[in-house]
Fold this protein.
Amino acid sequence: VESYCFNYQLMREAYSNIKENGIQYPLYKIVMTPRGDIIDPNHFEGYKSNPACKVLSDASAKLNMLGQQLGLSPQSRAELAKLPKPTDKEQSMADLLNGGDSIDF
């Protein structure tokens, strides 16, 4: 659950950065002579992708995967519902977490 929350925060921060700076930003280069004299201080080279786009994509994919593991989609909930029920001799995970430390193994 903590990983899900962390990736959600990453996704929101990346989205905010993309809203503020766009998906691409202009790339400029300083053109100089071999002697070091500046010819063009703002030579336009093209556009570069905002790194926040990759962060957004990765965080979204991770959220999707974690959401499925946590049962946050109807299909994953159905898969979790198919898990076998504990038998009378086996203790459930809830029983183990509620004072099951007195069991001898």
About this structure: The mean pLDDT is 85. The first helix runs from residue 2 to 21. The chain has four helices and two strands.
